[in-house]
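User: Some background: our group keeps a shared notebook of sequences we're curious about, and every so often someone picks one and asks for a predicted structure to add to the entry. Today it's my turn. The entry only has the sequence so far, pasted here. Could you supply the structure so I can complete it?
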Amino acid sequence: MEKNVVTCIHSGMDEIEKKHNIKCLRHSRFIFLSPEFLLQPANFKLISTIDFGMIVLDEAHCLSEWGYDFRPHYALIGKVTKHFKDAVVLALTATAPPHLQDDLTENVSGSIQRY
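Assistant: Of course. Here's the predicted structure to add to the notebook entry:
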């Protein structure tokens, strides 16, 4: 199996491609996953055996804006960051007023430095 590959799993993939990419997870250097995929119990069990150095939350304001009604798995991302407590969490957004920043801090374990 190839080393240092980039693996992506999303809802638009057919099952054959998804199964292939799941097999590649352990050998991947960069993994892109949706909260819905990641937080399914069987998938989380698989992912939890991988040693992550960093968790990147792109469009992090979605945790607060979408995480309660539209895409509830976003609100559960704290479960992931708590499990991988040694991983650095990089939350990226350009549209987070102070109340959204506070909500993000509550949902993601550890302290957050704002830049």
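Suggested note for the entry: The beta strands are 5-9, 28-33, 54-57, 88-91. Residues 98 and 104 are 10 Å apart (CA to CA).
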